[in-house]
Amino acid sequence: MSAERKIQLYDFASSPNCQRVKVVLAEKNLSYxxxxxxxxKGEQKKADFLKLNPYGKVPVIIDGDTVVYExxxxxxxxxxxYPAPPLLPNDPAKKAKIRILIDYGLNHLDAPYQKLRMELMxxxxxxxxxxxxxxxRELKNLLQRFEREIGDKPYLAGEFSLLDAAxxxxxxxxxGFGVLPDSALPRLGKWLERIKQRPSIKAIM
Length: 205
Known about the structure:
Blueprint lengths: L6 E5 L4 H12 L4 E5 L10 H6 L7 E4 L2 E4 L1 H11 L10 H17 L1 H11 L8 H22 L11 H15 L9 H10 L3 H4 L3
Parallel strand pairs: 1-2
Antiparallel strand pairs: 1-3, 3-4
Helix pairs in contact: 1-3, 1-7, 4-7, 5-6, 6-8
């Protein structure tokens, strides 16, 4: 990629949405310039940024004349524009399955995940431990689907794919929240240990 065509990534380092894009950029060996956007200062709501993304959210990438936002859409764009190495299978049914599992992992798990996250942001003495326990239980029940899906495969869909890239930032946080590892989810625990060895994942940890 020529220097003037280098991808720009509008980034907030601790954002899981930005992290899933950085994983794909690293897996595809794409060099990029990070443009920091400080969410704490509200820089994502400034007029210049809203011209790039009217939602006022990171990440955004600029690739030549192309502006793309929403992390999973960015990753699909990168997969189509820079297909080597491939992070989606050719088979349409397998591709659809990956998209379904991304949706499940990000949207279906979101309510208990956010409940847990918001509760853990409170001071220890203010936390509702009943709510914490029920959110953890709900997440562990929902994660059983991934435990079944992974089977004896090394990654969630077989080879490392956009599915792993999309979900790993959230799974790393669930590890920090005490949801994982869990004796009822042994395959998922092994997957998490395996994926943490990849350079692209080490870079976001």
